[in-house]
Amino acid sequence: MEVTNRYVAIQAHIDSTTAPQETKFVANRYVTIKAHIGGAPKDSDFELKSETVPLSLAPGSQDVIVKNLYVSIDPYQINRMKHCSSSQKFSYLAAALAPGEIVDAYGVGKVVVSGNPEFQKDDLVVGLITWAEYSVIKPGGMLRKLDTMGFPLSNHLGVLGFSGLTAYAGFFEVCKPKKGEKVFVSAASGSVGHVVGQYAKLFGCYVVGCAGSKEKVAVLKEKLGFDDAFNYKEESDLAATLKRYFPDGIDVYFDNVGAEMQEAAIDNMNIGGRVAVCGVISEYTDGARKAAPNMIDVIYRRITIRGFLAADFTNVYADYMSTTCDYLRTDKMQSLEDISDGVESIPSAFIGLFQGHNIGKKMVRIAEE
C-alpha cells in the first residue's frame, strides 16, 4: 500500500511538471505620442493605451519580460518626438519616435520571466525599458543586473544613474576644474545641475547656480551648500546679473539651458574659460531661440565650448561610482528626487519639465518592488 501511494505521488509530480501550464496574461498600460510634437508638449499630445500581454515566452526565446518599477523622465526625449531633429542622427538613444510607438526610457525593473541565461526571475535590473507597466527586452538590449549597494532604487536613475554620470564627467572631464575656480551652473536645481554644483563645492570651487523660483534658490543655498544662487526670472539683464555674482569673472560654466543664459555667461568668462554644454532646454521647444555668444570673446579669451554625452565617458564610470557612493554614505552629497506615481502620470511629469516644475531628478514610480 505504501509503495502504491509513493508511485501515485511521483506520477502526480511528473504530470504536473510536464503538462502544459496555463499562460498568465496581464493588462499592460503604456504611453505613446499621438503625433509629432512641434513646440512645448501638452496633454493632448499623449495617449495612455493598454494591451494584454502574456507573462510567458515561446520555447527558445531569449527575451526578458520586466515589471517596470521606476522610469526616468528626461528633457532630451522631446527631440525624439519631433518630426525632425539633428539629434536623431547622432545617437541611437535619441532615435526618432513614430506616433503610436511605445517610448523607451532609462529605468529600473524586476524580471518576471527570462529566456536569457544572464537574468533570473526576480532579478532587479536597470537599463532601457519603456514608458509602460511591463517591458519586453530583446537580446542585445541595454539591460544589466542592478546591485543596489544599499541605496534606494530611485537613486539609480538619478545621482547613481545617467544624470550623475553626466554631472561627474561633464564637470571633471570636460570642464577640467582647478581648486578655487569660479563655477556657474544653470538649471542648478535640475537632475544634473544639482549634482554638478555639489561636486564643484566638494572639489573646492566657488559655485553659483541659477534656478526659476525662490524655493529652488533656497534649496541650492540652504540644502546643497552653493555659495550663492539667483532666480533668473527676476533678472532683466542676465549679463549684468552674472557680473554682480562673479565680479572676478567665470572660469567654468556648466550649461543646461542655452540661449540667452549661455550668451551672458560667455560675456563674463575669464581667459581660458570652459563651457560644458550638457543641455539647451530653453531651445528644445522654441526652434527660433538660439544662443549667439560673442565669438570675438571666445577667440581672444581662448574659451573652450564643448558639447558632450555621458556615453562618451564610460572610462570614468568606476571612479564616478566610487566617489559618489562615498559622498552619499558620508552625507557629503544630497540626492534631490521628484517622483510622481503611476504610468498615467508620465505625460504630466514630462510636460512639467518644460514648465520648471521639478526639483531634482524627475522620475515616475510605476509600481512598488
From TrEMBL:
GO terms for molecular function: oxidoreductase activity, acting on the CH-CH group of donors, NAD or NADP as acceptor. The keyword Oxidoreductase applies. Residues 39-364 form the Enoyl reductase (ER) domain. Gene3D superfamilies: Medium-chain alcohol dehydrogenases, catalytic domain, NAD(P)-binding Rossmann-like Domain. It comes from the Eukaryota. SUPFAM superfamilies: GroES-like, NAD(P)-binding Rossmann-fold domains. Keywords: Oxidoreductase. InterPro entries: ADH-like_C, ADH_N_2, ER, GroES-like_sf, MDR_fam, NAD(P)-bd_dom_sf. PANTHER family: OS06G0602900 PROTEIN, PROSTAGLANDIN REDUCTASE. This is Enoyl reductase (ER) domain-containing protein. It comes from Turnera subulata.
